[in-house]
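chain below, 123 aa
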Amino acid sequence: MIATKNSIGFLAVAGVAMFALTSCSASSGDAVGTWGEEADSQPHLILEANGKLSGTDGCNRLSGGWEQDGDVVTFGEVATTAMACPDVETWLMDLDTARIDGDTLLVKDASGSEIGSLTKASQ
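prediction:
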């Protein structure tokens, strides 16, 4: 009888652990691709498999590097142009890290505050 209780307990713990691992991995997606709209005055990022990024905040061009660890994306040195951009929200210029939540890239600044989001474009 003790062996049965231990077996049931072990299976319950294993089931909970598997559910937790599955739940965590479900929120983590592949960052490679285009995030946002490639349209006039719209922010977007293109994250390439080789760790390079390009994009725009809707006015200024961005280029640099990135890495992914789970659902977190860390942006390396990012170079930008510095044009005057009337009527364009230039929040993407402050990107530092991001978190992937399904088909949404939640972009954060250096203080860890969420500054905006981009939806993954259809591939």
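Confidence is low (pLDDT under 50) at residues 3-27. The longest strand covers residues 61-69.
thats it, cya
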